[in-house]
Amino acid sequence: MPAALLDIDHVSKRFVKQPNIGERIAGMLGVGPKAETVRAVTDVSLSVAKGEVVGLVGESGCGKSTLGRMIAGIYTPSDGKILFDKVPVAKSQGRRTQKLTTRVQMIHQDPFASLNPRIRIGDTVAEGPVAHNIVKGRDADSYVADLLGRVGLDPSYRRRFPHQFSGGQRQRIAIARALAMKPDLLVLDEPVASLDVSIQAQVLNLFMDLRQDLDLTGIFISHDLGVVRHVSDRVAIMYLGRIVELAPTSELYAAPNHPYTRALFESVPRIGVGKKSFRPIAGEIPSPLHPPSGCHFHPRCPFAGPRCKRETPPLTGIAPGRFSACHLNTGGTD
Ligand SMILES: Nc1ncnc2c1ncn2[C@@H]1O[C@H](COP(=O)(O)OP(=O)(O)OP(=O)(O)O)[C@@H](O)[C@H]1O
Predict the structure, then answer these.
(1) Please, what are the averages of pLDDT over each run of 10 residues along the chain (334 residues)?
(2) What CATH class is the domain 4-103+183-329?
(3) How close is the Cα of 146 to the center of ligand 1, in Å?
């Protein structure tokens, strides 16, 4: 196994959810809610090797974006640490870390929101690399023209404004802007979720080509199992802030182990198969304000026993390179 470029070590993130003004006044009178803690990410450990792409999958609210933002240095972990090339990634770590964060770039779901509508996209793409001395101001124009060509856009488009582009083109611009920083690691947060299916395929293929050409390392966040399968070497399945299964992509899709992973696969509708071929996962996702005891999935799990309510199963090796957090793999559920 090559040395890890990214090391996530027992990382958790909690947010304190403050009551709104009305609730605060009610709180002062002793009848309103108090500040509550959202456990967005809990005790996640993961190493990513250079050149590897790891997919993060899970239902809405399971903590994928929060983990991605911690990796990109946007959020600071509440506990644990994240090392990029052996140096901590966190805003609070000072100048060395700030410089480092240019090596980690994040691409978001909504490319329009991340592009300033009043700035020509050539200037948007050039802004970061000029500010960080990656390219000199006088060379910026040709640098941007080259990058646009690389992401499949006509170099002359650099004089246009964001509203003159389609969704797929904007996402290409967002990729060009991230690549302009010469990153070693890209965190892609639902990068194709807002695009039409045919455009999704184009953007995914572009990512795959760039990945090969530039030897990029990636964290690919998506709720879409099909998309993640296409781009990832390994996949981590998250449930309510924890990784419950981690495996090489082909092995995970051939034989998912964790009951949640299996339920997730069974809940995906497939083209050409009868309506009864998919089964939604039973019950609702519990609130991360009050996660269930033991295994967070136990209230929805068909195999849950008393041990699952009592003990949190650790992520345990079940085969070379495969990990799952389920008591069924370690002596049963009682
Ligand atoms: N800044 C914040 N303040 C308070 N709570 C937050 C904040 N950011 C995220 N959360 C909460 O943390 C939990 C995890 O959110 P997160 O966005 O990481 O999940 P996700 O898996 O990326 O979901 P989605 O796919 O819907 O974006 C959610 O309950 C969310 O409401």
Answers:
(1) 85 86 75 80 96 94 94 92 85 53 83 82 93 92 93 92 89 90 92 83 87 90 92 96 97 96 85 60 83 94 93 95 95 81
(2) alpha beta
(3) 36
Residues shown for the chain = 334
Domain locations in the chain as residue ranges = 4-103+183-329
Give the whole-angstrom CA distance, residue 38 versus residue 81: 19
Does the CB atom of residue 68 touch ligand 1 within 6 A? no
Residue 287: other Cβ atoms inside 10 A: 13
DSSP code at position 276: G
Residue 241 Cβ < 6 Å to ligand 1: no
- Confirm or reject: Cβ of 42 under 6 Å from ligand 1: no
* ipTM exceeding the 0.95 mark: yes
How far, in Å, from the CA of 274 to the mean position of ligand 1? 34
CA of 67 to the centre of ligand 1 (A): 10
Answer yes or no: is the C-beta of 290 below 6 A from any ligand 1 atom. no
Its pTM stands at 0.89
CA contacts within 13 A on the Cβ side of 198: 1
| pLDDT score at 30 | 73
**DSSP assignments along 111-150, one per residue:** TTTTS-TTS-HHHHHHHHHHHTTSS-GGGHHHHHHHHHHH
Atom of ligand 1 nearest to the CA of 58: 21
